[in-house]
Write the structure tokens for this entry.
Amino acid sequence: MTAAPPASAIIALRELPIAQRLLGLYEYGLDGCDRQSDEQVRAVIEELIGSLDFNFGDITEGFARVYGYCLRKVAESDFDRVAWILRELRDTWARALMEAPAGSPEPPVDPSAAR
């Protein structure tokens, strides 16, 4: 089974609610790491960077630095390191979403970030 081209897969993920989209991006990035597809992993990380809302300051800057580090590791073909980071982020977000009180609103999203 072949994976969808990165652009079309990411466009499909943009249609999902933000929490599902984020987890889907991490999953798609992990799939790219497993297949050692620098194009796929780079596309996912660039999408994650593009979705950051820099109005949140230090937290956003931290994510931007982590994602930038991942891009550098992709350029070095260090897919194991990138997969470890993406897996940790995915698992952390999944736990946070499961522990959120019932009826909690989705996190706000800047519509201009959803290219």
